[in-house]
Amino acid sequence: MANYGKLAAKITFAATIAFLASCQSFNKDKSRTTGWNYNDSKNGGYELAEYKEPITGPGLVFIEGGTFTMGRISDDPMYEWNNIPRRVTIPSFYMDETEVANVDYVEYLYWINRVFGPSYPEVYRKALPDTLVWREKLGYNEPLVETYLRHPAYRDYPVVGVSWVQANDYCMWRTDRVNEMLLVQYGVLELDPAQKDENNFNTEAYLAGQYTGLVNKPIRDLNPGGTGERRVKLEDGILLPKYRLPTEAEWEFAAYGLIGNTHFERVVERRVYPWNGTILRTDDKKFYGSYVANFKRGRGDYMGVAGNLNDGAEITTEVGSLWPNDYGLYNMAGNVAEWVLDVYRPLSFEDVSDFAPFRGNTFQTRVTDAEGYLVPKDSLGRLKNRPVTEEEAMGRFNYRKADNINYLDGDYQSLVGVDWAVTDEDGNNSTSKMYEYGISSLISDKARVYKGGSWRDPAFYMSPAARRSLDENMATNFIGFRCAMGRVGGSTPGKK
């Protein structure tokens, strides 16, 4: 009995030591690997910022990720079979609650004209949407050419006439404006409305030390060999990741909103649209029978009969109108189709990774001088990038070259053993042989995917699985976009 008591005491003592050790491992004041203090200039000044959760950027909605069946499981009357079902996992991310509206894009144009207009008017012209997309050879839409983008009556309508390239430029601009305002709100910088040309806030340039701005209260530097002051670092957790276009997989996952009909990992109904069932009208008692999306009901029927309009919109409608899906996202079916990040390939669903699927990677690195230092930013205040060389990728197993757009679907590796495997001038890209652009195909490395139906599309295209493509430099009156942002940290806020 005495031996049992001694054994119990030893176990209790060992458990206490283990508990204390586990507590020490999560000590916010002291390193669990070296025992040196954090945030102590006497211990070298290594800083560990107070951090709980990333904030949600303006306009964004949190999209909890998970696994789902990507692709179409219903009949394909077009017989394209370019979206074969595939089980994939999507990491949690953020997406705009609504499509980018005219008022948002005009704010972007105003900023560009104010900052770059006098010296670089071509930057402003490059950003302008193509308002001529409203013209029809045998229709009268000329008033929309003049009014749709800038008239206040349309300010909350989705911007159209924007190419994939222009949409990406908008995302870059939005990233910088949001992060600049965060630094102002934290008191690090003061607002500087007099920014001009290369002297404008750019997130990457700021982090690289190539932008200073109007400093209000710099961060205290605890490095005993420093100046006592420093700029914000990525490790401080203040700056947000980049706004960007969503990937095709992210857009499709978010559009379905399966979180609304999932119980204990069981999807109770596989949706055809962003809502349950195949009925295009709401069962909301107050609005019973109203259409849940802005689409073309049939030939020549864009809005219904006077006195009993169906979706009430002859063209587009306000971005926050109609009913949101179970993630709280508006108009994921109808209104305007939306650009996504991916390069279009018919067989992407078979080729891409089953975790965070995406086709379109072109890996880049910073441009440095002979001594390895970053070269000065360009005339617009942006850091310079270049593609990774094959020499730099040598010895890697996850990628061997910068441009992976055609991996397994258009590159030389795809055609080894094929008698017509002739490479292009670069020696390894044979897309032009696999897809004869302009002759037998409209597929090229510039073909980008757009998702969802629009105001001028029938119901078929409102399925999140539907996919179409267009050249990245072209624009239409039925394609818009919304932004997304990757989530840093855990997949669910507040959970460890």
Please give a structural write-up.
- The chain is globular.
- Helix 2 (102-116) runs antiparallel to helix 3.
- Strand 5 (219-220) and strand 6 (229-230) form a beta hairpin.
- The chain has helices at 2-25, 102-116, 121-127, 142-147, 164-185, 203-207, 248-256, 348-351, 390-393, 431-434; strands spanning 60-63, 66-70, 86-90, 93-96, 219-220, 229-230, 262-263, 266-267, 304-305, 308-309, 337-343, 364-366, 385-387, 447-451, 467-471, 479-480, 484-486.
- It folds into 4 domains: 2-35; 60-360 and 450-486, paralog of FGE (formylglycine-generating enzyme) (Alpha-Beta Complex); 363-404, no CATH class; 406-444, no CATH class.
- With 496 residues, it is of the alpha+beta class.
Structure in a nutshell:
The chain has 496 residues and is α+β, with helices and mostly antiparallel strands. It contains ten helices and 17 strands.
Question: Keyphrases for this structure?
Answer:
single chain, 496 residues, alpha+beta, paralog of FGE (formylglycine-generating enzyme), 4 domains, four-stranded mixed beta sheet, three-stranded antiparallel beta sheet, 10 helices
Report the oligomer. single chain
Give Rg in angstroms.
27 Å
Count of helices? Answer: 10
CATH structural fold name of the largest domain: paralog of FGE (formylglycine-generating enzyme)
Report the CATH architecture of the largest domain: Alpha-Beta Complex
Major sheet: order of its strands?
A: 15-14-11-16
Helix content: 10-25%
Can you tell me the number of structural domains? 4
Based on DSSP secondary structure assignment, what is the total number of beta strands?
17
Ranges with pLDDT <50 over ≥5 residues? 17-25
Structural class: alpha+beta
Strand content: 5-15%
CATH homologous superfamily assignment of the largest domain: paralog of FGE (formylglycine-generating enzyme)
CATH class of the largest domain: Alpha Beta
Largest sheet: 4 strands, mixed
Order of helices and strands: HEEEEHHHHHEEHEEEEEHEEHHEEEE
Whole-Å distance between the termini? 42 Å
Q: How much is the average pLDDT?
A: 87
Shape: globular
